[in-house]
Amino acid sequence: MRKRALRLGLFALALFILARTVNAQEPDRKQERAERIRALQQQLAELASIGRARVLEERGIKPAPRPAVKTTGNVESFAPVTARFVRFDVLATVSGDEPCLDTLELFGPDSTVNLTATEGARLTASSVWPGHLGDFKDGKYGPGWCWVGKERGKGWVQVELPAPTKVARLVWGRDAKNRYHDRFATVYRVDVSEDGRIWQTVATGEDRAAHGPGPQFSRSTLARALDPGQRKKRQEVLAELRKLGVPGPGEGKSGPQPGEGVNGGFLALFLNGEHGHAGKYRCPV
Amino acid sequence: VDGYDLVALIFAREISDSLTGLVKTIDRQLEEANTRRRSKDKLGIFVVFCSDDPSLEAQLQKLIAREGVKHVVITLSRNKAQGPPRYRIAREAELTVAVYNRDERVVANFVLDSEDLTPERAGAILTSLKKVLP
After folding, report:
1. Strand runs (DSSP E) across A155-219, as ranges?
2. ipTM of the assembly?
């Protein structure tokens, strides 16, 4: 009897240890699966990007040398030039509203010192929205700095340095925290001057892609532009994703589901058919 | 719709070789089924194109003439790319197929990219249709 109880006890202990080992491995497996899914989705995105480049090329659409402006931050690099005044001139905003900036950093060649925030630098603007005078900080640039102009869709803000200095880069953005997507400049130029009278344009947004998603193509159009090997690879990636329980990008829930009845009428233009409906709007259900 | 008994709705975004092949196969099956059935009401399989592409209507007219599609009814949704709202066609979905039984209840639903309409997956759709066709 005691032997049997001992055996049972040992068996229960073994089960307990086994269960703990399995549980300890569970997070690893979950993480492994999540990492694999991410890697596969990344492969799909890369293949789609190759397909997109080919479709654009086939259709004679040249991609812009620089990406579209971002609300979070943009870099304007230009040949080093000596300037005392650097002006960011907004010529149009995405929303047509008064322009807004929360970042305006100026750098010399190969330097990480933000000249806008150095002692003696002064900020002026074509106008300042009354509610934002506090953020404008009496012409000084610092934490929490923000400029909103008073003119709809245009306006400029200018950095006046204490002395002529070599500059080569301007970083600007509307909202570094990516909360607001209005008021940012879509058409702009960066002008520099040594004396505030003669100006030279050193950068514009003309070489940037247009704001927005750009030409859109279906996933299948992008897939068809791939080489046979790449198409095969895409199918393999999709198959592995399905195996892992992740539907492909176009395989989510869509349309009437099993068990549902007719969802109601709708109109569609019939292009053929047997009852003289062709050329007419009819309800197919 | 007058004169049709609903069998399936196929919501598509664009013409592709794989979809054309599927439509042609279904068209042949429908011809045979309609002959067997001998009813004045025809079996209705509708391809509803949901697209903003203004050139699609002309492309579809050419396709109908070229491929001689007679029994599958090719249509263009009035709601364009959105598709009929009550049918909840996902913006991401390139191809959505709903197969109905005689009680007009959905018995199968397929969602896939037209590029992924492989012979195997087209076969699965055709098998579902065969089950509801007389």
Report:
1. 155-173, 185-193, 199-204
2. 0.93
Q: Mutual orientation of helices A228-243 and A2-58 as an angle, nearest 10°?
A: 150
Q: Do A266 and B115 touch (CB under 8 A)?
A: no
Judged by a CB distance cut-off of 8 A, whether residue B32 touches chain A is no
Q: Within an 8 Å CB–CB cutoff, is residue A119 touching chain B?
A: no
Query: How far from A113 is each of A21, A72, B27, CA to CA, in Å?
Result: 54, 20, 71
| Shortest Cα–Cα distance, A284 to chain B (Å) | 5
Check if the beta carbon of residue A100 is closer than 8 Å to that of residue A188: no
β partners of residue A194: none
DSSP summary character for residue A125: E
A129 secondary structure, DSSP code? -
DSSP reduced 3-state for A33: helix
Tens digits of residue pLDDT in A158-172: 999 999 999 999 999
Q: Show the tokens assigned to B66.
A: 């070229």
User: How many Å is the Cα radius of gyration of chain B?
Assistant: 14
Q: Which of A60, A89, A67, A50 is nearest to A170 (CA)?
A: A89
Does the model's pTM come out above 0.95? Answer: no
Q: Is B9 on the interface with A (CB under 8 A)?
A: yes
Residues of B in contact with A253 (CB under 8 A): 90, 111
A253 has a chain B CB within 8 A of its CB: yes
The answer to whether the Cβ–Cβ distance between A250 and B92 falls below 8 Å is yes
Q: What are phi and psi of A190, to 5 degrees?
A: -110, 120
The helix/strand count (H/E) of chain A reads as 4, 10
Contact between B5 and A274 (Cβ < 8 Å) = no
DSSP string, A268-279: EEE-S-SSS-TT
Which helix (H) or strand (E) segment holds residue B76: the answer is strand B73-77
The pLDDT-based confidence of A9 (bands split at 50, 70, 90) is confident
CA-CA distance, A76 to A69, in Å (whole number)? Answer: 11
**A64 token code pair:** 């812009």
